[in-house]
Amino acid sequence: MDNENYTTEVQKSLAEAQKVAINRKHQEIGINELFKVLVQPGEIAAEIYKKAGLDIQAFENFIDGELDKVSVVEGGNVQYGQSISQQLFSLLQKAQEIAKGNQDTYVSVDTLMLALMELEYNPLTEYLKQTGLTKNQLGKVVADYRGGERVTSQDQEKGYKSLEKYGVNLNKEVRNGNQDPIIGRDEEIRDVIRILSRKAKNNPVLIGEPGVGKTAIVEGLAQRIVRNDVPDNLKDKTIISLDMGSLIAGAKYRGEFEERLKNVLKEVKKSEGKILLFIDEIHNIVGAGKTEGSMDAGNLLKPMLARGELHLIGATTLDEYREYIEKDKALERRFQKVLVKEPTVEDTISILRGLKERYEIHHGVRIHDNALVAAATLSNRYITDRFLPDKALDLIDEACAEIRVEMNSVPNELDQVTRELMREEVEEAALKKETDAASKKRLEELQAELSNLREKANKLRQRWEDEKLDIQKVSDKKSELDKARHQLEEAENNYDLEKAAKLQHATIPQLEKELQQLENSERPKEWMVEESVTDKEIAEVISRMTGIPISKLVEGEREKLLHLADNLHKRVIGQDEAVDAVSDAVLRSRAGLQNPNKPLGSFLFLGPTGVGKTELAKALAENLFDSESHMVRIDMSEYMEKYSVSRLVGAAPGYVGYEEGGQLTEAVRRNPYTIILLDEVEKAHPDVFNILLQVLDDGRLTDGQGRTVNFKNTILIMTSNLGSEFLLENDSTDGTISPEIKKKVMQLTQAHFKPEFLNRIDDILMFTPLTMDSVQKIVEKFIHQLSDRLESQEITLGIDEDAQKWIAKEGYNPAYGARPLQRFITNNVETPLAKEIIAGKILPHSKVTVTLVDNQLKFITQE
C-alpha cells in the first residue's frame, strides 16, 4: 500500500485501525476496523454521516457486532494487524478510482465513504443501504462538506469547513434565539451598514471603551439581516465571528497558522461577498501567529482587503487601536472608523428595560423597574472605572443571582425551627437513657414539644415548597411566552403567514393572559421566599463592590450617624466648631444632599501642635469605619522637593516606578470611600497644591498611567501649624477666637497658599489652645484609657478631682498642646502604677484611686 496516494487523515486512520486489530487479536486489518476509527466523535466521517441523517451510535454498535464475529487467533508466533484484508484492499482500490474520476490528487476520508457505498457483499454497505442512505445522497453531503473543492493536498481535510471550525455564525445564533435583543444603537448600526455598502474601503472598525456595546452592534446587525431590515445589498449576507484564539491554538509548526487562516479566507472569498467576517479585538491580528520567517495575520489580510475580496468588521478599544492598528498605516487605511460612545444613563435604562425579561427568565426572579433605574444611575455615579451599559448589566445580573441563591436556600424561619428540633431530639435521646422520675417527666414534656415542632417544621417546609413552585410556574410561563415570540419572529421571516397568525392572535395572547393570572394570584402577606430584585438589592451590590455605603440606612447605622457629633466630642475635646463642621459634612453625604461632583468634604485645620487636629481625623475614621487606621495618611513633610510630587500620582512614562502608581491615587483607587489626611500640609512643595486643585474642585485626579481616579466619596482633611503663634496669644477662657487673631491667621494662610487653592476648600477651621476645663477632661480621658488597659488584669482605676486638676496644671503646656500631658501621665501615673503591680502591692480584683497628697500623686487601694 503506497501511503503517498492518501491524505494525512486517511494514513492516520489506517494506523489507528491497525491498533484496533492488534488489540482485538485480528490477523488482518479489515473495513470494520477502519470504520470503527472513522465514526468516532469529532472525526470527519462521523460529521458527514450525521449530516446525511445517519444514527452514528447505532452504526458504531453494528460495527462492534461485526468485529465481535471475527475469529481470534491465539499463538506465540502469530502476528496481529500486519496485513490488510481482501475487502479493505478492494475498498482502497475503489477509492482510488473515484478519486481519479473526481480529479483528486489524493484519496481522502470522504472518498473512502463513497467507495464503501459501491462495494458488494459487505455487511456495512448493506446496513447503510437498509437505513435508506444512497450513494447520491452521500455524494451531495460530501460535495457540500468539501465546498466544491478537489483534494490537491495531503492536509486538504484540515481546511474543510474552516469557518465552522474557527468561527461562529451570528445569523444562526439569532435564528436559534441565542442572542439577547439589541436596544438602541441605531445610529451606529446605520453607520456600519453605510460603510459596508461602499465600493472601496468598505470595512468598518468599531472603536470604543470596553463595555460600551461594540460587539452588541454587530449582533444587532445580524438580527437586522435575519429580519430583512437591511438594504437589498446586505439581505443575503451572513456574519461569521472569527475566533482568533482557536485559530492560533495548537498551531505548533511554522506555517500551520497561516494555512488555517488561508483556508478561512479561501472560504470567505468563495462566498463571493456573501460572508461578512467579524473579528472582535481586531488588534490581535497584528502580530498574531508571527514566528521567525513567517507573516502575521494582518499582512495576510491586507491583499484581500485591498482587492475588496474580504468584507471585514472589526471591534477594538481606543487604546489598542492607537497602539496596534494606527502604527500599521497600510492596514489602518483599509478600515473606516465608527466611534461607539458610552450610552447616557437614560439610554442605559432603555437597554436594561429591553433586556429585563431575559434576565427574569434566566434567574427565575422578578425585576422591578426601580432596580433598573438604580442600576443605571448608581453605577454611573459610583463605579467610575468602567462603562455603561456593561457595569449596569453586571449589577442587575449580580443582584438577580443573589436573590436566586436566597430563593434556593432554607428560609431563616424554617432554619431556626429545624435547629431547635435537632437540639431537642438530641436532648430526647439523652433522656431516654435516664430512669429517674424527673427525667421521665421531662421526656414526656419534651416529646409533646417535639410533636408540635415537627408539625410546625412540616407546615413551614410545605409552605416554602409551595412558594417555590408558584415562582417556578411564573418563570416557566415566561420562558414559554419568550419561545412563542421567537417562533412568531421566525414565522414572519419565513413568510409562514398561517403559523404567524396563529401565534399572534391565539397562542401569545393566551400565554400573556395565563402569565397575568399567575402574577396577580393571591399571595400570603409574608412570603418566606424573596423573589423580587429592587433598588435596595442594587444598592447593596454596589456597597459590596466599592465599599461606599449607599444602601438605605438600617436602624443601627441611623442611630450611629445621629450621634456622630457626640461621639467625636467625647474623643476630641474643646474643638466644638471643627467637630460640628466635619460631622455635618458626613451627615449631608449619607442623606444624599452633597454635591455629587466634589469630595464629601474638604477641610483645612489650622492650630498649634497637640490640640486635636490629627486626632479628629482618627476619631472620624474610627466612627465611620470602626478602625482609626482606615484612612490614607500622607505626611506632607516628605513632599518638600519639587520632584517628589510625582510620588502622589505615580511616575511619568519612562521613569522608574511608572508601573507602581502613586501613593495617593492607588490608595483611593483601591478604597474609594475613605478619609485622606494630609498632615503638616504647609511643609509640602507648592506644586503639590496644584495637583490638589482638581481633587478639591471636581473630585478627580489623573494618575501617571492616565487613569482617572474618583475622589468624590472621600473626606479630605489637611492639617497645618500656620498661625499657631497668633492662636497661642488668644486669652479667651471659653475657647472662642477673637476676630483680630482670626484675621492675622487668615492673612498668614493667604500669604502661604494660593487663592485658587484656598477658594476650593469647603471650610478653614481654626483650633484654639485648650482651656483648663478641656485639659481636665483630657486628663480624665487618658486615665479612662489606662483603666481600660488594666481591665485585663481585673484592676479598676479611678482618679479624684484634686489629682485631676493637679495633673492638668502641672502637665499641660499651651505651646505643645496635649502631648506633654500624655507624657506626664506616663511618667507620674503609669510608671509608679506598674512598679506597684510588679511588687505585688496591687493585686487583681483591686480598686485603685489616684489621689493627691502633699502635692504628690498616691494610689489608694481597696480590695
Mean pLDDT: 77
Which radius of gyration do the C-alpha atoms yield? 40 Å
Q: What is the CA–CA distance across the termini? A: 108 Å
Low-confidence stretches: none
Percent range for helical residues? 55-70%
Which percent range describes the beta-strand content?
5-15%
Largest sheet strand order: 3-5-6-7-4-8
Helix/strand class: alpha/beta
How does the major sheet shape up? 6 strands, mixed
Describe the protein in words.
The chain has 863 residues and is of the alpha/beta class. A 6-stranded mixed sheet has the order 3-5-6-7-4-8. A 5-stranded parallel sheet has the order 12-13-16-11-17, with helices on both faces. Strands 18-19-20 form a 3-stranded mixed sheet. Helix 15 (297-307) links the parallel strand 6 and strand 7. The longest helix is centred in the middle third of the chain and has 57 residues, at 437-493. The protein is elongated. The N and C termini lie far apart (108 Å). Residues 1-148 form the Clp R domain. Homohexamer. The oligomerization is ATP-dependent.
